[in-house]
Amino acid sequence: MFGAGRCARVIGPGLTGLAAGYGADLLFADPRHGHPVAVFGRAAAALEQHSYADGRAAGAWHTAALVGAVAVAGAAAERLARRAGPWGVAATLAASTFVALGGTTLVRTGDRMAAHLAAGDLAAARALLPSLCGRDPHSLDADGLARAALESVAENTSDAAVAPLLWAALGGVPGVLAYRAVNTLDAMIGHRSPRYRRFGWAAARLDDLANYLPARVTAALAALCAPLVGGSPREALRAWRRDAARHPSPNAGVAEAAFAGALGVRLGGPTRYAYRLEIRPTLGDGPAPSVADLRRATRLSRAVQAAATVTAALLTASLRCRGR
């Protein structure tokens, strides 16, 4: 066990790195040009030209090669940072966390969608929807766009904010960068289109595993923060317990059900993608979400992200003081 003084020296860089990464995301959001995640995406697409085959083994190799390379690069960066002292570690963790986070861009996009819908500008709302999710926007009316945006805000509060913060706490620089690589690959190839049904299987299952704990932390924090948007913690927990398991995703359903309960709305129903139509189960009780509910959802997302930062900081302090 560490003494109090040594414990403070060990946890200080971790806490500073997490807080600085979260603060940078609040201030700057995602860079519009030269984002490292976009660079990774281009590299993954280039590798796919050589690695693609219509089978799970090829997809597993593709996923392992890319995620492994990012994890090794992150571990090397962390080792180099240690040579610069504790604050070198803090700076490297802050930069990595900032790169992995996308929570501020998420809520800003949700707010822009709400503004377009409130103004009755469906063309602008449909043009914006691909920034939030992969659904076919042309088949959606105003109500459908509001529901799609709210479901995306709920799911991506976990994927783009809570999960990176938890993986930064649990795995440091290599952990948070590897998580972002996994989540990016899932978005690229982890869907059930004819091309990726088998090739993307490994990426999708790895993303399910990486997001299992973060999705449940997101749901718990959504319940905790529900009163801040006029919602009910009890209803959030009730919807989570009752409805989440019916969703086809083991993680998205958890976050979406908790948000639905917290906001007092009903999510789910027919969901059209470019390559298929899904009939999703109903999540939560109450009316279909309105523009006002979408705005409440973005406020809830901001609150959950702040609470997740505190949770990750406490986790960092606990793990590092125990000598991990």
Structure notes:
Its main location: membrane. Belongs to the CobD/CbiB family. It is a multi-pass membrane protein. The protein has 324 residues and is mainly α. The protein has one domain. 73% of the residues lie in helices and 4% in strands. The chain is built from 13 helices and 2 strands, in the order ααααααααααααββα. The chain has helices spanning 4-28, 36-51, 56-83, 86-100, 103-118, 122-128, 142-189, 196-199, 201-210, 212-225, 233-243, 252-263, 291-321, and strands at 267-272, 277-283. It has a two-stranded antiparallel ribbon. α10 packs antiparallel against α11 (233-243). The mean pLDDT is 93.
Itemize the secondary structure elements and their pairings.
Elements: H1 4-28, H2 36-51, H3 56-83, H4 86-100, H5 103-118, H6 122-128, H7 142-189, H8 196-199, H9 201-210, H10 212-225, H11 233-243, H12 252-263, E1 267-272, E2 277-283, H13 291-321
Antiparallel strand pairs: 1-2
Helix pairs in contact: 1-4, 1-13, 2-3, 2-7, 3-4, 3-7, 4-7, 5-6, 5-7, 5-13, 7-9, 7-10, 7-12, 7-13, 10-11, 10-12, 10-13, 11-12
Organism: Mycolicibacterium hassiacum (strain DSM 44199 / CIP 105218 / JCM 12690 / 3849) (Mycobacterium hassiacum)
Membrane topology: Multi-pass membrane protein
Pathway: Cofactor biosynthesis; adenosylcobalamin biosynthesis
Helix and strand succession? HHHHHHHHHHHHEEH
Proportion of β residues?
under 5%
* Helicity range: over 70%
Shape: globular
Give the averaged pLDDT, no decimals: 93
Strand order of the largest sheet: 1-2
Return the structural class: mainly alpha
Radius of gyration: 20 Å
Q: Could you name the ranges where pLDDT drops below 50 across 5 or more consecutive residues?
A: none
Number of extended strands: 2
The span between the termini is 10 Å
The largest pleated sheet is described as: 2 strands, antiparallel
- The number of helical runs is 13
Total separate domains: 1
Pathway: Cofactor biosynthesis; adenosylcobalamin biosynthesis
GO cellular component, one term: plasma membrane
Function: Converts cobyric acid to cobinamide by the addition of aminopropanol on the F carboxylic group.
Protein name: Cobalamin biosynthesis protein CobD
